[in-house]
Design brief:
With about 550 residues, this protein is α/β, with parallel strands linked by helices. It has 15 helices and 28 strands. Strands 6, 7, 10, 11, 12, 13 and 24 form a 7-stranded mixed beta sheet that branches. A hairpin with a 4-residue loop joins strand 12 and strand 13. Helix 3 packs across helix 4 and helix 7 packs parallel to helix 14. The longest helix is centred in the last third of the chain and has 20 residues. The protein is globular and about 70 Å long. It is an enzyme of class 3 (hydrolase). GO terms for molecular function: FAD binding; hydrolase activity; quinone binding; sulfide:quinone oxidoreductase activity. Its EC number is 3.-.-.-. Keywords: FAD, Flavoprotein, Hydrolase, Oxidoreductase, Quinone, Transit peptide.
Length: about 550
């Protein structure tokens, strides 16, 4: 925790961990203010966990969420009131401390000289020049940063891979990657963490070590877009200009979309492999469960890696099967959708494992609430009269996949379709309305599976098409919707689902080596040993193994 002093009674920092609360108490903090909306980042500690820890230390906790780059005057006023009513030292936090500092700076308008506000913020490491005119109540231009040939929003798999593919083709390009996180995660590995195959540390790297040479890392959060002026607004209301833009910030895990979930995550038998900190708890629960009921849930589409919820079920069941306790455990899968898997060719193999593990499948069951203390899950169904109805199910363990949406700043931008996803041509991944913008990965509305494997194919295509646009070429590379879902049906065997638009099978390896419709050890070796290496040493470094963008004459 990197604590910054803004005033004698106010400190700010980046995202807090539960373990930080005791340290704040030692520093005399009696009030904590959270300015970060729930579900903004995959590794974000839920506010409820911070609040519970604060109660144990007799610290007040307030939730005042602010969307990055959109600090409103009324939010600043509310922040100021909290400061006035606090009797002791206050600590505020968000993703980086920038929003908390901005709230403080705006709340101090008229109470102290502008120069003092800006200087105090600068001493703490936060540039308030972008909101100085708001503080002063006068007009003026927002400070502008440099212009780049290509600006990439997002430093995840999609953003870094695209930057590397671009630089591999033309290292003279000026490229900026906008990404606030200091850590980068290999998220497909979290399923393996939840099964005791990988350690959490194997899935994490320093962001600084992955930014490709030749690209500029702007360590800030994008907040808004002005495509008419070719600008991105960063936290603190700073602007950055681009000639071409790539939008790839990933997806938001909406933990708050299920009532009671945030308050009970990581305890009461409630877990999720979709969270870095929780995947180890999944493995702990699996090992300790000798009898009872285990539930596994899947929300409405779209979600990243649609097979992950059932992967957790298969790997958990395999452990219970091999440890001779599966007959004592009632295994139930609850899917908000109508089918186990969207591509029918893979269903026979999957259904064999469902039968082997004696799991019951419950379709059209949407998880809407969890009562952790009572260990009860509540599902919305449609009854025989066509009306919604809530049913309950007690559990000893439940693995939850949260509902998922595009990040807040994306959904409020002019770049999206009616459903809130970046609106692209599914073949070229170019924006339908803004010709110098592309999008890929989980945030794009192309109808493909949202998987790392899809990004591995998309990144070179986007890079190829951006270079073609720069050169004024008309023919563009086309994306066929390729995605892959290695369905870990047991420890040591995988059904390797590879498919494209319309469910067309698109195997990347010869059938004699891996027949994707059947469980195989070769596919497990690929998942466990090869894919992490391909990710870290190939894909993120612009080495396009097994990927060859094909330019269409119909572009």
């Amino acid at each position: 925790m990197n604590i910054k002093d803004l005033s004698p009674n106010l400190t700010v920092s980046e995202q807090l961990l539960v373990s930080d609360v005791s340290e704040l108490e030692k520093r005399g903090v009696r009030t904590i203010i959270c300015n970060r909306p729930e579900g903004e980042g995959v590794d974000q500690t839920p506010f409820a966990d911070i609040q519970n820890a604060a109660k144990e230390h007799d610290i007040e906790c307030h939730y005042l969420p602010v969307i990055a780059g959109k600090v409103r005057d009324e939010e600043a006023a509310a922040f100021g009131e909290l400061l006035k009513t606090a009797n002791y030292s206050v600590h505020a936090y968000c993703r980086s401390g920038m929003r908390s500092t901005t709230l403080w700076a705006l709340s101090q308008a008229g109470q102290q000289p502008l120069a003092n506000i800006v200087a105090s913020a600068k001493a703490a490491g936060y540039d308030m020049s972008g909101v100085a005119t708001r503080i002063a109540g006068t007009s003026g231009e927002i400070h502008k940063l440099d212009c780049y040939d290509v600006v990439i929003v997002g430093g995840g798999a999609a953003g870094i891979s695209t930057a590397s593919s671009l630089l591999a083709r033309d290292n003279s390009l000026s490229i900026a990657i906008i990404e606030p996180a200091e850590k980068h995660y290999y998220q497909p590995g979290w399923t393996m963490v939840g099964a005791g195959v990988f350690t959490p540390q194997q899935t994490k790297r320093e962001m600084s070590a992955l930014i490709p040479k030749g690209a500029k890392w702007i360590k800030a959060a994008a907040a808004a877009f002005d495509p008419e002026k070719n600008t991105v607004v960063l936290e603190g209301c700073l602007l950055i200009k681009y000639a071409r833009l790539v939008v790839a910030p990933g997806i938001k895990l909406n933990w708050e979309g299920i009532e009671g979930l945030s308050e009970t995550l990581g305890k009461n038998g409630v877990t999720s492999n979709y969270h870095y900190d929780l995947a180890p708890y999944t493995w702990e629960l699996v090992q300790n469960l000798q009898g009872g009921r285990a539930l596994f849930t899947q929300p409405p589409m779209p979600i990243k890696c649609a097979g992950a919820p059932q992967k957790a079920m298969y790997l958990s069941s395999d452990y219970w099967f091999k440890n001779d306790c599966i007959d004592n455990i009632d295994i139930e899968f609850y899917n908000a959708g109508a089918v186990l898997f969207g591509v029918a060719d893979y269903l026979p193999a999957l259904e064999q494992y469902v039968a082997k593990y004696k799991a019951s499948l419950n379709f059209n069951h949407k998880l809407v609430k969890i009562d952790g203390d009572k260990k009860t899950a509540y599902f919305e169904i449609t009854n025989t009269e066509g009306q919604p109805e809530i049913i309950s199910r007690e559990f000893d363990m439940i693995h939850v996949c949260p509902p998922q949406v595009a990040p807040d700043f994306i959904r409020s931008s002019p770049l999206v379709d009616d459903a809130g996803w970046v609106d692209v041509d599914p073949n070229t991944l170019r924006h339908k309305r803004f010709a110098n913008i592309w999008s890929l990965g989980d945030v794009a509305n192309s109808p493909n599976a949202k998987t790392m494997a899809a990004v591995r194919v998309q990144a070179p295509i986007v890079a190829t098409n951006i270079l073609a646009d720069i050169k004024g070429e008309q023919h563009l590379a086309h994306y066929n919707g390729y995605g892959s879902c290695p369905l870990t049906v047991e420890r040591g065997k995988i059904v390797l689902a590879e498919f494209g638009y319309g469910g067309k099978l698109l195997p990347s390896l010869p059938k004699w080596l891996i027949n994707g419709t059947k469980p195989s050890r070769a596919a497990w070796f690929l998942k466990e040993k090869m894919l992490p290496f391909i990710y870290w040493q190939g894909m993120l470094k612009g080495k396009e193994w097994l990927v060859s963008p094909k330019v269409s004459n119909d572009s």
